[in-house]
Amino acid sequence: MNPKHNLKQAIDSLYRHTHVNPEAYTRLVLDCVRLNDTHQAKRLQTHMDNNLFEPTTTFIHNRLLHVYANSGKLSDARNLFDKMPQRDIFTYNAMLKAYSKMGSVDDLLGLFKTIPCKDSVSYNTVIAGLGTRGCVSEALEVFVRMQKEGVEVTGYSYVSVLNACSRVLDLRRGKEVHGKVVVCGLMFSGFVCNALTDLYAKCGEVDAARWLFDRMRDKNVVSWNSMISGYLKNGLVEKCIELFSEMKLSGVKPDVVTVSNVLGAFFQMGRIGEAQKLFAEIEKKDVISWTTMIVGHVQNGKEEDSLVLFNEMLMANVKPDKFTISSVVSSCARLASLFYGQTIHGKSVHMGVEDDTLVSSALVDMYSKCGEPTEARKIFDTIHAKSTVSWNSMILGYAQNGKDLEALTLYEEMLNNGIKPDSITFVGVLSACIHEGLTERGDQYFRSMTKQHGIVPTLDHYACLINLLGRSGRVEGAFETIKGMPYKPDSLIWSTLLSVCKLNGDIEHGEMAAKQLFELEPNNAEPYITLSNMYAAKGRWKDVAAMRSVMNSNKIKKFAAFSWVELDGKVHKFVSEDRAHPESEAIYRELNRIIRKLLKAGFTPNKNLVLHDVGDDEKLESICYHSEKLALAYALMKKPEGRKTVRILKNIRVCGDCHLFMKFVSRIIGRTIILRDSNRFHHFSAGCCSCKDLW
DNA sequence: ATAGGGTTAG
């Protein structure tokens, strides 16, 4: 029947006897090895200890050690190793294996030094262990030493050392090893050739990899996978899919690794349907293929589907790991779904992965993007070994939520803790300065990047600087910055300039920025709308009309705007002037009630923010029923009582009228509103917004 | 008498 169950029963019966003959132990330990069953191995060892059984050879203990080593049970391995009366080369090699899988590099090298009679296997194990930790020079050192000491260098040695090189993309040293492989005549070994193919592919020399691949006599599934993943890593997505077709014709059966690679290729091309079809065809779906599906959906803006997939994965009894959890957490972040985010947070705690860098920073990001910087901070404070990534997530979280001074304080704290800031850190720091209007301080931070931290500013940082200068009225300075950049300005730079021009009513520079954007992104309606609104603000209706006719003749469509709210775990989506919701009538009644209340309190809709120069009544109509207002009305209607915060999400930037509207609602109706638009967070409370009216 | 070390995917 079930071999694992049989083993358990055999060991159960062992426990009913006190005297056991050595052959029985030998038989059982071999079963433990065959099934790699650490649990039964431990029970077996306990039984031997309890009965003071002292084996005459090292064999049984060595096999137990091997089971522990192979399943990463480092402490069990170490305990057994420490109390073994005699040790031979098999003992040492098994312990080396345990360290190379789990322990520190120091432990690994420390043990290696003490081994009295190292053989080829000892060397190969250490080289492999060093390689998986990215210690290439150490791995190479051991490799050289083994040659000097006359230990036999085998295919195993070459594969391990090549793997070390490819892990850190060290092609120069990899090529030296390649030379040695040729001299030794090991080019016909499949393992060695696969490792070489992988090395060249990973290091960006796809053609060299393909050359080797084409000359391989017996390509196995790993050969194909190495080449397919090489194409994918180098962005040759079509080649990757093409080779997959060739593979199917070759008669080598694709496995779950092949499919995971090809899935990645389909997702990169947005061919989601094909990815789903391919995924459905794999019989044995593992964590990685599920996670690839989840990540692929998130990358293609299908966050809800990624959560559905996550559920299906759990139903299929595949255990998620830290990669899965961090990607579903970021799915929740992008959806700003506090409900699911908290559920998955709970799951991560249960799994014990919440302290992992990947997971914890995703959690900090999730709570921040749900407008909960205080919760984010709680997570941040529990992280044991905070990495640059952890600090970055929290600094950015504060900055996104209008807690700009907290962001800057945290940055100073980061420096005091001796953590090195990186390029991302400064995006957070600079945007905090922008919103606080700290022009001088921001400028200093910008200069400190190169001077004190050796970080080359990217276009993102220049965009922050332009924002910083522009918002303090120095549009000319912002423009000079663009001219002085070591890069060609991209659309981000020009749209940043355009937005500060709008703030300053600087039509001259605004037109210049818009003109660049028209060329860089001919289908983007944003610059047309912004420029048009700038003209409208100055009453230049002729120019407004001209903009509209250009948009019409070039068939430029506004990006569909929508907002959504999450109520009791269900997402409700609205578009402008939406009548599709089943409770539409009630929603409009509620919204009109709110509008009347606000008008009495002095709210004046800002009619200049409408693109079309239509009649005033019509303007009012189209502006009053923007999607975020409908979402707000729905949320207030469904949750009228209590002081609960209303959270609304919007896929594009909030307009000035809606912003003013929300401020009024927070004061007159007395509810806190968190509105996340495509750009940042707006916390409305008592008539004020955390963005300080700059966005 | 028995035993060990290596390649591919997020």
TrEMBL record:
Listed GO MF terms: RNA binding; zinc ion binding
GO annotation terms (biological process): RNA modification
Highest taxon above the source species: Eukaryota
Homology family: Belongs to the PPR family. PCMP-H subfamily.
Protein name: DYW domain-containing protein
Start and end residues of each DYW domain: 602-695
Alphabetized UniProt keyword annotations: Repeat
InterPro entries for this protein: DYW_dom, E_motif, PPR_At4g14850-like_plant, PPR_rpt, TPR-like_helical_dom_sf
Pfam family, one: E_motif
NCBIfam families for the chain: PPR
Positions annotated as PPR repeat: 57-91, 119-153, 189-219, 220-254, 286-320, 387-421
